[in-house]
Write a structure and sequence with these properties.
Number of strands: 13
Number of helices: 18
Oligomer: single chain
Strand content: 15-25%
Largest sheet: 8 strands, mixed
Structural class: alpha/beta
Helix content: 25-40%
Strand order of the largest sheet: 8-9-7-10-6-11-12-13
Shape: globular
């Protein structure tokens, strides 16, 4: 079926761990355990938190094994753990603890090299502090991390060890991929689209995928469906030699084939690269992309699909399949005009407005147009306003380290964090009503009357 025929126009998890219970009962404290084999560090951290009424140091540990033993019995809300310890490094201790205890871990180290950041995230850490850090940095980090839902599957394992016969965290969380994983139950396709290129769509897609992985500890995959010009693997600092082309050519897709084709980022996100050669895009059609996405959805809880900026048959198929659609725009008049056009296309395709999540990127006053103006004109809530930060973006791209892993307290990360939580809420609830309760299918021109 032609694109024009389809659109009727020419082509031109909520967490529910101990932390939520403690903070939700009014005045609950963050129960913290501090792990370091240097007594001075433990003392300093304790002193920095002495006057914090909502943070309580419930235990200290002088090594990795000591931390494991105490975590099993105390189940602290947050663990602040040093990396370099004599008996066991923090990476290993974190992996063992997170398999059995519903908690969040913040790594700390004198080493601020990117590789340490990546290894900490791969081990399951939710944040990273470089020594020496200030009291404000410590307190802010602990508060932020405490809001992240714990992995729900780990809750059944609190205590001296997993209960026989019950699932362990490894049932829903793994660093690699094997062919014996159970069928996914969440199976959310989240399409990331923009009607205009250069608005930061890919940057948002990859950072969001990492946040979803951190929050849920469920299986998250990032698909580069920009078939002619996708470069997500470069943005993430990955060298992947296979691509979505390999899945198109396969007669049938099973978990083993998917495992061989997709790469694994240090955050745990699985990545499917765009075709190695731009001309391969012509070999994909609606049926091919649908087959690939359906097979991938069977293996992942969250499938983030980064798309190109065209209304091709492939893209229309992705939009129709998605449970949630992130519509990304900046505040230039040309980009905003594309937003209006998208809503017109969505209406013709019968896509419910409730599925559309509008995101304003690079929000700055000098653009002269405010997100509220766009929201008023299209009668659709702006779910996130991401600030413009050129230096941070360039640094992220050149180093191959996503922004949410290197600037956790930046406003960009905070805004995207709130969006990620909402996406999880919608996925868990099974509906999109929380995005926008005031829908009006009758659209007007962008700034017309």
């Amino acid at each position: 079926m032609k694109v024009a025929d389809r659109v009727g126009m020419p082509v031109q998890q909520k967490g529910h761990g101990n932390m939520q219970q403690a903070r939700g009962n009014g005045g609950g404290r963050i129960r913290l355990m501090v792990v370091d084999d240097k007594p001075d560090t433990v003392d300093n951290v304790t002193k920095l938190l002495y006057f914090e009424r909502d943070i309580e140091v419930v235990a200290t540990a002088n090594g990795g094994q000591d931390a494991i033993n105490k975590a099993l019995h105390l189940a602290p809300h947050v663990i602040l753990m040093d990396i370099n310890m004599q008996d066991m490094d923090g990476f290993r201790a974190a992996e063992i603890i997170l398999r059995q205890v519903p908690t969040r871990i913040v790594m700390m180290s004198v080493n601020g090299e990117p590789e340490y950041f990546k290894r900490a995230m791969a081990a399951g850490a939710r944040d990273y502090l470089v020594k020496p850090f200030s009291g404000d940095q410590l307190i802010s980090t602990l508060h932020n991390v405490a809001q992240i839902p714990v992995q729900s599957m780990a809750e059944v394992a609190v205590g001296p060890g997993p209960t026989p016969g019950q699932p362990t965290p490894e049932d829903s969380y793994d660093h690699g991929f094997n062919g014996n994983q159970p069928k996914r139950t969440r199976q959310q396709i989240i399409a990331v689209f923009s009607g205009k290129g250069g608005v930061g769509r890919s940057v948002i897609a990859m950072n969001l995928a990492i946040l979803l992985r951190q929050f849920t500890r469920e299986r998250v995959a990032l698909v580069d469906a920009n078939l002619q010009a996708g470069d997500l693997h470069i943005l993430m600092g990955m060298n992947i030699t296979s691509s979505i082309d390999d899945l198109r050519e396969a007669a049938g897709l099973d978990s083993q084939i998917i495992n061989q084709v997709m790469g694994t980022h240090n955050s745990g996100v699985r990545v499917l690269r765009a075709p190695l050669h731009p001309e391969s895009a012509e070999l994909f059609n609606a049926d091919e992309i649908k087959r690939i996405l359906l097979d991938l959805r069977e293996n992942y809880d969250y499938l983030i699909v980064d798309m190109s900026s065209h209304y091709s048959d492939v893209n229309l198929t992705i939009l129709e399949m998605a449970e949630q659609i992130l519509l990304v725009t900046t505040l230039e008049i040309t980009a905003l005009n594309k937003v209006t056009r998208f809503f017109e296309v969505a209406e013709r395709l019968g896509i419910p407005e409730q599925k559309i999540v509008l995101i304003c990127n690079r929000v700055e006053s000098y653009y002269g147009i405010k997100p509220q103006q766009l929201q008023s004109q299209v009668r659709h809530e702006v779910a996130a306003q991401l600030p413009e930060e050129v230096e941070l973006l360039v640094n992220s791209v050149n180093r191959g380290i996503p922004i949410v892993l290197q600037a956790r307290n930046h406003q960009f990360t905070k805004q995207l964090t709130m969006l990620a939580k909402r996406l999880v809420d919608v996925a868990v609830a099974g509906n999109t009503d929380s995005y926008n309760g005031n829908h009006n299918p009758k659209k007007r021109g962008l700034f017309g009357r």
